[in-house]
Design a protein that fits this description.
Elements: H1 6-12, H2 18-30, H3 32-52, H4 60-63, H5 68-105, H6 108-139, H7 142-176
The structure holds zinc ion (ZN).
The site of zinc ion has 7 residues, from helix 3.
Length: 178
Amino acid sequence: MEHQPIEKWIIEGTPLTPEQQAQLEEHLRICKHCRELQRSLLEVDELLMQAEMLSPAEGFTQRFQATLAERKALKNRRQLRKFFLSLLGAAMVTFGAMGLYIAMTSSPVEVVTRLLENSTRVLINLDQLERFVTTVFNTLPPYLSVGIWVVAASGLVLFTLLWIGALWRTSFQGVFNK
Ligand SMILES: [Zn+2]
């Protein structure tokens, strides 16, 4: 049996015209191979998503049907994760620089303690923040996601800058007030 282009459509999950969609459904009715392929891909998608989510929102699995909108939402979530990882990276670099400065101005024990305190605080806050945003994100209809994502991203950048600034100031005051 000829599985193309059906197989390709299933694997790539590209948007289909109504005609193509009808063609796909017709083929799935008669072709066990492609039906299995589609089912296993859905399972992989679901696994990937569950692995990404620390705590799946209620009704999440029911809502997860492999519609195009949902695929888009999944992609957005991956971008969101990437964004958080970059923030974490930026925070690490900042603390690295800060650590170096403190190292030149205070004793080694003090340096280690201060760095551990700050790094732990940042990691915990980032984790909580990500969980919160991911949950909010998952409860929104997909068409809202992109707009919200842009607004949230801008807000988060601002928030992170303020926050790094505040931590920076706190640490430096700690050094100078001795
Ligand atoms: Zn087939």
